[in-house]
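Example for reference:
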Amino acid sequence: MPIFEFQCEACSNQAELLVGRTERPACPKCGSRKMEKLMSAAAGRVSSGSALPIASSCPPPEAGPCSPHCCRLPMN
């Protein structure tokens, strides 16, 4: 079963809960079943002492964007 992040609509408590996809969890603080699933941030791992691959391939900021898909272009 996956771990999801929820926020209780009754008491605003946030919790990470291990639940099945069809299961309706109860708030661990107040017991309410009015739990809203939150979007979780993606987790990643970078080995110590090395830069992220995208950062090492980009030119310095003063050089401008490195391509039409550059990581430094604003996201609209």
User: Anything to note?
Assistant: The chain has a mean pLDDT of 76.
